[in-house]
Amino acid sequence: MNILVTGAAGYIGSHVVKQLIEETDHSIFVIDNLSTGHQKTIDKLNDIFQQTRDGEITFYREDLKNFEVIEKIFKNNSFDAVIHFAASIVVPESVENPLKYYMNNTVNTTHLIKLCNDYNVKHFIFSSTAAVYGEPIESQVTEETQTEPINPYGRTKLMSEMVLKDASCANDAFSHVILRYFNVAGADIHNRIGQSFPNATHLIKVSAQTAIGTREKMMIFGEDYNTPDGTCIRDYIHVDDLASAHLKALAYLEQGNKSNVFNVGYGHGFSVKEVIATMKKVSGVDFRVDSAPKRAGDPAVLISNNEKVKQVLSWKPKHDDLDVICMTALAWEKTI
Prior knowledge:
Layout: E1 2-6, H1 11-23, E2 27-31, H2 39-52, E3 58-60, H3 67-76, E4 81-84, H4 91-96, H5 98-118, E5 123-129, H6 152-170, E6 175-181, E7 183-185, H7 203-211, E8 218-221, E9 233-234, E10 236-238, H8 239-254, E11 260-264, E12 270-271, H9 272-283, E13 289-292, E14 301-302, H10 307-312, H11 322-333
Parallel strand pairs: 1-2, 1-4, 2-3, 4-5, 5-6, 6-11, 7-10, 8-13, 9-14
Antiparallel strand pairs: 9-12
């Protein structure tokens, strides 16, 4: 199959491409504008390609907002499936600059879905987020939990989900899987690729950077949430396990199954303070942590119910261990 991956020079996309290279014989095409991704990540993926099987990625350094250019890429190739990652993802920024998020996350995604329908692409896997749930009443959210996002980031992703569902309803030849991620962390188990986002806000990456001295200190944003220790609780999933869910989703669609949506997390959570304590333990560094006010758009608790993805996709996580997540994140930071 010919698989197009948007945003594959970024964090999650690169780990999915790595697994596509190692575990399938698909041809891989990538569109990325390198605004947050890196050419060196593409280079590393090509190294893995050469070591695994003869060939390389077909890489287009383009922006999805350049509609005419993107359409030419679809005209010149015959894609069987699209795996769509390219998006803006920083919640506080989405509050400060919502139009950037609506244009990049919703408008560009809608155009991409249109091209898939215009050029007979059969399958679409969408990188969504647990942010679509907002602040749910349930301690664990299922795919049936009401979607009430509390920030523009979550709303832009939910709108794209709606576009995708409506497009699939109107076109029997077009099917999709929506994967709602929880908090993704860690790096390639073999330490070849990892999270290289330039101004990362993700807790585990920030704590790893502080442990190795890249940052002088880190902040806890809010210590008066309605949780046991007053800090936010999240469901942290290792990026390699998340990547494997995409391959399962692709196989699911290839087998002719109907469009579907899945939570992808471990089904349990850790507080900010628990994560920091774990990073201090695995690094052996008692780094500086200060308090700061709450950030806009942060719910207190967000944990997945992952029974559906395990049952329907037969997904089996391999790295459900906070120590492992923190150790791989730390090992990656030491290479940057």
